[in-house]
Amino acid sequence: MREVLVVDDEPEIRRVLRGYLEAEGFRVVEAATGTDAVHCVRHREPAVVLLDVMLPDLDGLEVLRRIRTFSQVFVLLVTARTEEVDKLVGLGLGADDYITKPFSPREVTARVKTVLRRSRTAADEDRHVFPGLTVDLARREVTVQDQPVQLTTLEFDLLVALAESPGRVFSRRQLLERVWGYDFYGDERVVDVHIRNLRQQLHDDAARPGIIGTVRGIGYKFLPGPV
């Protein structure tokens, strides 16, 4: 049974999310503070964290910073803030996605199910090998010039989506549909944020890219051909 950590200081929100998630077969752990959330991730290693941005001690962005120092767990930010900058800053710190309050518990549950379904689809022998880059789908590992690279769950899935079709140009909308896996109603610029983070992790210079190319006005493409 996969475990979901729900981090929110409002007991009623935790109760509602617990009910929907448990009805879908998930085990749910709750945390009301940022300090407790960091402790739970470190010691329980949940599959997904639903992290409220507004918490009474540490805010959600600081919690995210601390989590990312030791874990690549899938993190879904839950925010009541409507400013786009808050969402993009959160994604830049390593969040995989965000959802804005008020939200539908069914939508939250669907997103959790989608990311966990994606993480189980690779076969043991699935590996994409390119000059200087290897993507191991079964182990969810990436190496650049034989050096391991740490990616978040969503960054890895984004790289795989591009690498499976070298040279093909994907629009932001197409990448949202392939990687996020649900009808996305937010700002398509979240793709740009994740591409920027992905390039940084892969040491791929956006000015002279060797892995992920930008097609101005359209989207992105994977540059290397297979070995």
UniProtKB/TrEMBL annotation:
Q: Which residues form the Response regulatory domain?
A: 3-116
Q: Which SMART domains match?
A: REC, Trans_reg_C
- DNA-binding region(s): which residue ranges? 125-224
Tell me which residues bear 4-aspartylphosphate.
52
* CDD domains cross-referenced by the UniProt entry: trans_reg_C (cd00383)
The reply on keyword Transcription is yes
Start and end residues of each OmpR/PhoB-type domain: 125-224
- Keyword Phosphoprotein carried by entry: yes
InterPro entries the record matches: CheY-like_superfamily, OmpR/PhoB-type_DNA-bd, Sig_transdc_resp-reg_receiver, WalR-like, WH-like_DNA-bd_sf
**Record's keyword terms, sorted:** DNA-binding, Phosphoprotein, Transcription, Transcription regulation
Name used for this protein in its record: Response regulator transcription factor
Instruction: Read off the lineage from the record.
Output: Bacteria, Bacillati, Actinomycetota, Actinomycetes, Propionibacteriales
